[in-house]
## 1
Amino acid sequence: MNQQQLFEQIQKKQSFLCVGLDTDIQKIPRHLLDTSDPIFSFNKEIIDATEEFSVAYKPNLAFYESLGSQGWESLEKTIMYLKSKYPEIFVIADAKRGDIGNTSNLYARAFFDKLDFDAVTVAPYMGEDSVKPFMTYLGKWVILLALTSNKGALDFQFLKDKESGDQLFESVLKTSQNWGTIENMMYVVGATKAEKLKEIRQIVPDHFLLVPGVGAQGGSLKEVAQNGMNSKCGLLVNSSRGIIYASVESDFVEKAKLAAKDVQEEMSELLKEAGLV
Amino acid sequence: MNQQQLFEQIQKKQSFLCVGLDTDIQKIPRHLLDTSDPIFSFNKEIIDATEEFSVAYKPNLAFYESLGSQGWESLEKTIMYLKSKYPEIFVIADAKRGDIGNTSNLYARAFFDKLDFDAVTVAPYMGEDSVKPFMTYLGKWVILLALTSNKGALDFQFLKDKESGDQLFESVLKTSQNWGTIENMMYVVGATKAEKLKEIRQIVPDHFLLVPGVGAQGGSLKEVAQNGMNSKCGLLVNSSRGIIYASVESDFVEKAKLAAKDVQEEMSELLKEAGLV
C-alpha cells in the first residue's frame, strides 16, 4: 500500500485509528476459551466489530510469542483473515526487530513474505544495514522507533550529540531519512510527548507517524492532531486496551465497537477541522 | 545458571565457545530436507557433534521466524532437546527484543517460561523499563546490545553525549549497570572492534561479554581474549557459519565437529595463558 492509498482510506473512513491487537489469553472473555483457538476467535470478533472505524491493525508480537508456536499460528490466522476479508486494511507487525543485514533480511521475509504484513516496527540502535532490508519490498513499510512513550525513553533517546546538538531521537529521524522515502518509512512517536510532535514535524514534515499511547498511556488525541497532522493526515494513532478490552464480559464485541466508534467520531471532527475530508 | 556455574563449564570444557544456530533451510545439506523437520534434524546433529567443545548455543530467532509457526516449532524442539540432553549448556535466544514494560514482560515469558532459554539479547533503545522485566527470573540473563559488529553500528552507537562526553554505547554500558547485576546481565560487544574491548573492560570489568563476529565477520580470537578476558573468563565468543556450515555436504557433522574442535583448542591455549585452567 502506498501513501496515497493509505490517505484515501483515512478519508473514506474519516479515521486514522489503528487498533492494537494486544491479545492476552488472560484478559479475553472466558467463554472464548472453549473455542479451538481463543486468540484468533477474539481477534476475529474484534476486527469485524471495529473494521468500519479503523484503517489499521497492529498485533504486538510479544503477545503471540508468549504462547509459543500456537501463538504464532493464531497470528498467522489473524493476518490471513484480515487480508482476505479486508484487503484495504493496513496491517502492522509491532515487532521492534533489528539485526545485522543478512539477519534483518530474514525478519523481513518472516513479516512480508511468510506473513502478509504491510509494515513492521524496527529499532534503530544497529543502524542502516539493520533497517534497509525491510525496505526492499515494494509497497511495504518500516516504522522506525524514534521517540517512544515509555519512561525508559528518557534513558537514551534524549542524549544530546556533542557535535550537532541533536538529541538521539532527532539524530535517528535525520539520519534515517537517507535510508528510505516517505513511501516506505514511518516513525513511532509516543503521544505522551505531544509537545514534541511539533518539533518532530519540522524534521519529518511528510512522513507518516505511528502514535501509540493515546488513551491508556495518557496522550490527548486533539493535541496529537494539532501538532502532528500534515496534508495527507500523516498520522496513525493506536489504541489497544481502550478498545479491545472495553468490556471483558459477553458484551465485549458491542463495547469494542462503541469504543472504536467514539474514537473515529473524534477523528472525523479533527480531519474536518484540518480540511482533509 | 549463575556466573560461577558458567565459569565452571568453561573450565571443564576449556572453551568459551558459543555456537550460533543460524539455521537456514536454504543452506543445510539436501538430504535433510526429506526428514519431517529439517531444521530440527540439522540442529540436533550439529549439537551432538559440537557439544563437547562448546559451552553455549545461540539460535538467532530470525531464522526460525522466517518459517512461521513451523519454524517456531523447530525452535521449541531444539531448546527442549538441548535442555534435556545437555542441561549444563547455556542457551541464548538471539532475539534483540525490547518493548514497553508490560510487553517486555510477555517477551520474557516467551523465552524463559514458555521456552527454557537461559538468556535473551535485548536492544537498549527503549531504556530501563524495556530491559528490567527480563531480569526478574532467577538464574536468567539479559544480554544487552552495547557495541554491535555491523557497519550500521557507526550510525548511532558512537554519538558523543554533550554532557558526559560518553559515546552512546558507553552510556548504555554505564546506565544499564544500575538495572541489574553481574549475575543477570551480559553485554554484546562486536569483535570487529577488538581494540574497543579494553575500553569496555574499564567500564564493565566483571560482566560477561557475548562477542559475535569472530570468524566470518572478521575478528581475531586472540585479540578478543587479550583485551576482554577477566578472572572468570568473562567471554562467550560466538561462531555460527564457520562451524555449522563448515560443510554443506553429507560430511557436515564431521566437519562441524572439526571446526568446533579447532576453536576449542585455540580457546584452551588462551585460557591456559591467562591461568584460568
## 2
Amino acid sequence: MEKKITVLPGDGIGPEVVAAAIRVLKVVAKKYNHDFQLAYAAIGGAAIDQFQDPLPEETIETCKQSDAILLGAVGGPKWDNNPAELRPEKGLLRIRKVFDLYANLRPVKAFPSLLDASPLKREVAENVDLMIVRELTGGIYFGEKKRSETEASDLNIYNREEIERIVDNAFELARVRRGRLCSVDKANVLETSRLWRQIVEEKKEHYSDVTVEHNLVDSVAMKLITNPGHYDVVVTDNMFGDILSDEASVITGSLGVLPSASIRSDSFGLYEPVHGSAPEIAGQQIANPAATILSVAMMLHYSFGLQEEAAEIERAVNAVFEDGHYTADLVKDGGIALSTDEWTDKVIAEIDTNF
Amino acid sequence: MEKKITVLPGDGIGPEVVAAAIRVLKVVAKKYNHDFQLAYAAIGGAAIDQFQDPLPEETIETCKQSDAILLGAVGGPKWDNNPAELRPEKGLLRIRKVFDLYANLRPVKAFPSLLDASPLKREVAENVDLMIVRELTGGIYFGEKKRSETEASDLNIYNREEIERIVDNAFELARVRRGRLCSVDKANVLETSRLWRQIVEEKKEHYSDVTVEHNLVDSVAMKLITNPGHYDVVVTDNMFGDILSDEASVITGSLGVLPSASIRSDSFGLYEPVHGSAPEIAGQQIANPAATILSVAMMLHYSFGLQEEAAEIERAVNAVFEDGHYTADLVKDGGIALSTDEWTDKVIAEIDTNF
Ligand SMILES: CC(C)[C@H](C(=O)O)[C@@H](O)C(=O)O
Ligand SMILES: CC(C)[C@H](C(=O)O)[C@@H](O)C(=O)O
C-alpha cells in the first residue's frame, strides 16, 4: 500500500516522540511491504516562530496532499502570553475545522502493568476499556462569540447533520466493540442536548445490536471515577467531550500512553498523543513515546484500514510493558528508566522478532 | 436568636433525611437557646402532584418570609417523562433564580473513617479538603435557548457583576481557609472565560493574602483525580461547576455525606444534601441523613453566623463515624447498618452529652 503522511512534530517533546513513532512506522512498513511517504511541516509554536502563524498556508497545503496527519504536540511558555490568534493551540483548533475532523476518538484501556500508577484502586481501574467519541468541530467551540466591556458570550450551537454524523460514528464503533453506547448530554438544561438526545433516539432504530443509555454529564463525571468499567463507547459534544476525555485519561494511570484520532467521514484523519508538549522535559530523550506510537497504530487502523499492522504495534507496546520496560514517567521503585530511543528500540525488536 | 426556616422535604428520601436533620436542629436550638420556627412547603414532584407546579406560588411566599431554606431532594421516575416545565428539577432551577442564590458552596472533605469507600487510593484521597464555589444563576443555564427542527442553541452569557460577586465570595472563603484559590475556565476557547479570567486578575489586587491560579477546566478534571489534595477553594461558572462539583463529590467516598449551600449576598440561603432523591430506597428508613444534617450546619454557619453551633454538629457527625456507626450505604463488611433514625440518635446523643 502507498500512502502519504504529513508529519507535524510541533513543540516541546513533540519532535522526539514523533521521531520515535516514525521509526516504528518504518519497521512496520518494511515488514508488511508498504510505502509510506512522509512530508514534514510546521504547526503551533514552531510555526509561529517561523511563519508568524500557528497553522501556515504551506502546512495546510502539505496536509491536503496527504492521506493522514501525525502530530506531536503544541504549546509552551514561550507563546503563553501571545494574543489569541498567535497561540499554538489555535493551530490545533484551526486544523480540525479546516479538514472537518469532526470525530475525536480517545480510547482508554487499562494496561495491567501500569495500574500502580493509577490514582484509582486497582479493582476500580483494572477492567477499563472505553472509547470516548467527542464531536470536535461544532458546539460552543465554534459558535459566535461576543465581547463588550461589561459582557461576554459564547453560542453553543448544533445542527442535525453535525450531530447525526458523530452519533453514527459512535454507533458503528459500539457495534464492533462490546455493543454498548452511552450518550452524554445535559438534556435537563440545554436545548442542544435535547436535540442531541432526540437524534440518538432516532438513530438507535438502525442499530438494534447496540444497547443505548442516555446519561447526564454531571452524573458521568462521577461514574467515570466510581465505575469506569461500566463504559464501552461514550459519545458527547465538543465541550463535554473535552472535559470527560481528559478526566477519563487519568483513571488508568496511563495518560502518557494514550493515543487519539480526529477523523473525517472519508477516513482522512489526524493522529496525536493525548498528552501535551511537556516543555519542561523537552530535548532530554526522557519522554514516553508510547502514546505517539499507539497513535500511529490508530492511523493504520482508521485511515488506512490496516488492522493487522495496527494490532502488531499494540501487541508490541503491550509486550514491552509486560516485560517491565518503562520510560522515566512510569518506572517503578528500583527500576531503570529507559530513554525515549531505548524504549522505542524494545518495541521495534518486538516487531522485528516476528518477521 | 430567632429565625424562620422554610422546610422543603421534596421527593424520595427527601422527607426522611429532612426529618432527621430537623431533629438535630431542634436539639442544637435547645442547647444554645435559639428559637427556630419552621414552615413546611412543597417543591419538586410532590408539588407537581399537589399543585401542578414544581415551585408553587405558595412555596415562594413561604420562603420569602423566612431567613433560610432547608431542602431534601427532588425527582423520581414518576415525573421523568413530564414536559420540561413540569419536571421536578425545574423547581430547583427556578428557586435558585427567584431568590438570586448565585453562590453554590460545595465542600468536599475526606472523613478518615470513610476512605475505604473511596474509588481512589487512600494516599490520594486522604488529605482532601476543598470547597467548590459554583456560580449558580447565570451562564448557559439561563441564557437564551433556541430550537428549530434542524438546529438548537444555548447562549452562554455572563456580565461583569455576575462574575464579580461570585469571585468575591470565593476570595473571601479562601482567605478564611488555606488562602489558595483556583479559578477554572476555558480561556483558550471561550470569550466568557476570558472575561472571567480578567475579573479574577483585577480582584486579586484586593486580596493580597490569597494565592491565585488559573486553570483550564479539562486540566482540573484530571487533577481533581490525580491530586485532589492540591485544591483549597475552586471557583468556576455554572456549567463547569455542575460537572466538577459532582466529579469532586465522589473522590473521598463520602458522596452520601456531602452538604451544600446556595446563598445570596445578604446571607439568605438554601441548604441541601448533594445526593439525589434515591427513590429506590425511599420510605425504608435506610437513607443516610448525614449530608442533610451537615447542610443544617452550613445553614447555621452561613445564614445565621452561628459558627459554634455549626462546629458542634460537624464534630458530632465526625465522632459518630469515628465510633464506627454507619447507615447501610457506608457500613463495612461484618458491620451492622443503623437506620436513618438510629444513626441520627447517635448524633443527638453526641450533642446532648455536651450540654
Ligand atoms: C488546546 C485546546 C483548545 C484543546 C481543546 O479544548 O479541544 C485541547 O484541550 C484538546 O482537548 O485537544
Ligand atoms: C438537576 C439539575 C438541573 C442541577 C443542575 O445542573 O444544576 C443539578 O445537577 C445540580 O447540580 O444541582
